[in-house]
Write a structure and sequence with these properties.
Blueprint lengths: L18 H16 L4 H10 L6 H16 L3 H24 L7 H10 L2 H44 L7 H7 L2 H9 L2 H10 L2 H13 L7 H8 L9
Helix pairs in contact: 1-3, 2-5, 3-4, 3-6, 4-6, 8-9
Length: about 240
């Protein structure tokens, strides 16, 4: 049996209007609450900071717990998740009683300290279920991060493609080692030497690749030179 909660007056200015505002205004205090491990400590802290008690409290703690899971700080993650369940239970009690959640802090802690096994088991089940959801969110974050990295890499690749749609990085890996060294060090004499050493058919094939990838910006003399079996006149 839960005693009828006493109405608690809280100033409107203490209430954050959005989750973002709540994070900015109360994040430090919420994290302080998230580190408690004893009901007595949590009870005392919330009584002294009633403005924290709202739907955002549990949301903030769950997000933080996911952050901790991503950092593999599992012991701390579990402590914060436990505090998130406390916040969830207070909110559920408020909904069932149709009262302000701040009115339900005292009744919740009174109940949990003296509750029958069934109530405590239900609390523990919610806690375990939240840990599973946190791990699921962790995996989603990792997948989203991988997807973002892949998209950024694709954008970077598309941005560096040459006039023929060839990737200069890929072309660098395909051309002879000495020619690659010449491009990387901007060594024009070495570049001419390596072009001159290539067989006629391969020389033109390589030339088309370096031009098509943007590694080489040819002049009219370069095109004639390759066709005639000579190395291009100069490199960018």
């Amino acid at each position: 049996v839960i005693n009828k909660p006493k109405k608690i007056e809280v100033k409107e200015e203490d209430e954050a209007k959005s989750l973002g505002d709540y994070f900015e205004k109360h994040g430090k205090k919420v994290k302080e609450f998230g580190l408690f491990s004893k009901y007595e400590e949590s009870h005392k802290f919330l009584k002294a900071n009633m403005y924290l008690v709202c739907e955002h409290l549990g949301s903030y703690l769950v997000i933080w717990a996911v952050d901790l899971a991503c950092e593999d700080k599992h012991e701390l993650k579990e402590r914060v998740a436990h505090q998130a369940i406390i916040a969830q239970y207070i909110m559920e009690l408020a909904r069932s009683l149709k009262r302000d959640p701040r009115d339900c802090v005292e009744p919740f802690f009174t109940r949990i300290k003296t509750a029958e096994k069934q109530y405590k088991d239900a609390f523990d089940d919610e806690f375990k279920a939240l840990l599973v959801r946190i791990e699921e969110r962790k995996q989603v974050r990792f997948e989203d991060a991988k997807k973002k990295i892949a998209e950024e890499e694709l954008e970077e690749r598309e941005a560096r493609l040459g006039p023929a749609g060839l990737d200069p990085f890929e072309v660098l890996e395909e051309i002879p080692a000495k020619m690659r060294e010449a491009f990387e060090t901007q060594n024009t004499p070495l570049l001419k030497e390596t072009f001159a050493s290539l067989p006629d058919g391969e020389r033109e094939r390589v030339y088309q690749k370096v031009v098509g990838s943007g590694l080489w910006v040819p002049s009219a003399d370069d095109v004639v030179g390759v066709g005639g079996g000579k190395p291009p006149a100069d490199a960018e």
